[in-house]
Design a protein that fits this description.
The protein is mostly beta strands. 14% of the residues lie in helices and 38% in strands.
């Protein structure tokens, strides 16, 4: 009989719990027959239990420390019809079994990037731009980041920041109603790259509201008196229009690339209604006015292709249109 180990409970019970570990299952079974004659002793039972315990404990330890490192080489293209994790149809593979399992269960994830939205700006306003950006790490560490062409030191992990000191510009004589500037970023993990772009649009304002014309001419019956209206439609008056309550709002201008807009409940309050937009917008000199649902031609262009300076001193040619008569109560006007 061959024993490969012994065990006993430490302390006073050591002598009565002494157990032996058998080296083979045959030896273990021979010690515990059918017991028809009382041949099995308590020690025989302890020995069997301890032998089984030791075997199971050893097996558990070996499994917990197991590492899959056997080489796996698959040179024949895969015949799968849809991806299995990170393994694609038609792929070949060379690596360890661990690599195969990791590829299936943990497919590669590329990095992603983003740039925060940029608000539209008026021509002549600040040219300094701050970009809020972020990079999200995928499967691998981030190795490079470029913000609008300038490098940022990567941490390797997901990262965000604000890029300042970026300077842009626009034409001093725009040929259209707006100019768009683009900003970009790129991040890489040495396997793939991700890019994002964001735009900033420079544009002019359109203006609306009411004005006082002291002589109160009727431009429908006396169109020659439009010069009296033109005289009061100076740049500062246009810039300071407060909207005449249109749409329940307390302002009379917005940044826009077109003249089309609805003015609900615009109230002249006994004054003339006035509207102004850049000469570069579509159909700037041929607008259509709809008043309370009916096309109305009783509006006169009192300034055309006329230079107008905004609050930043930037000059753009404008069209200024004024109602031919005073408006005493709220109306709904749509301009297209």
């Amino acid at each position: 009989m061959a024993f490969v180990g012994t065990y006993s409970v430490p302390g006073p019970s050591a002598s009565i719990t002494l157990s032996y570990q058998y080296s083979t299952v045959d030896e273990l079974l021979l010690q515990i027959p059918n017991n028809t004659g009382g041949e099995i002793g308590a020690g025989d039972v302890r020995d069997a239990i301890y032998s089984l315990w030791a075997r199971l404990d050893g097996f558990s330890s070996s499994v917990s420390g197991l590492t899959v490192s056997s080489a796996y080489i698959g040179l024949t293209p895969s015949t799968i019809t849809s991806p299995i994790g990170g393994i694609l149809p038609g792929a070949t593979f060379s690596g360890s079994v661990q690599d195969v399992i990791d590829t299936m269960l943990y497919p590669y994830v590329s990095p992603s990037t983003g740039i925060g939205l940029l608000n539209d700006r008026e021509f002549g306003s600040s040219m300094n731009v701050s970009l809020n950006w972020n990079v999200v790490r995928g499967s691998n560490n981030i190795t490079s980041i470029l913000i609008n062409g300038s490098p940022v030191v990567p941490t390797g992990l997901s990262q965000s920041g604000v890029a300042t000191g970026i300077f842009t510009t626009h034409s001093m004589s725009p040929v259209g109603p707006s100019e768009v500037k683009y900003f970009s970023m790129t991040a890489s993990d040495a396997i793939s790259s991700a890019s994002s772009t964001q735009s900033l649009t420079f544009m002019n304002r359109i203006y609306w509201g009411d004005i006082v014309v002291p002589s109160q001419p009727n431009l429908t019956t006396n169109p020659g008196s439009s010069s009296l209206v033109t005289a009061v439609c100076i740049d500062s008056t246009i810039r300071n229009l407060t909207g005449a309550g249109a749409n329940g709002q307390a302002f009379g201008n917005i940044l826009s690339t077109n003249k089309s807009r609805t003015y609900n409940n615009i109230n002249g309050g006994g004054n003339y209604l006035v509207f102004a937009w850049p000469s570069t917008v579509s159909q700037s000199t041929t607008p259509v006015f709809t008043v309370n649902g009916m096309i109305n031609t009783a509006f006169t262009n009192v300034r055309t292709a006329s230079p107008l300076a905004n609050t930043f001193g930037f000059i753009t040619n404008y069209e200024v249109w004024v109602s031919n008569t005073r408006y005493n109560s709220p109306v709904n006007i749509v301009i297209t």
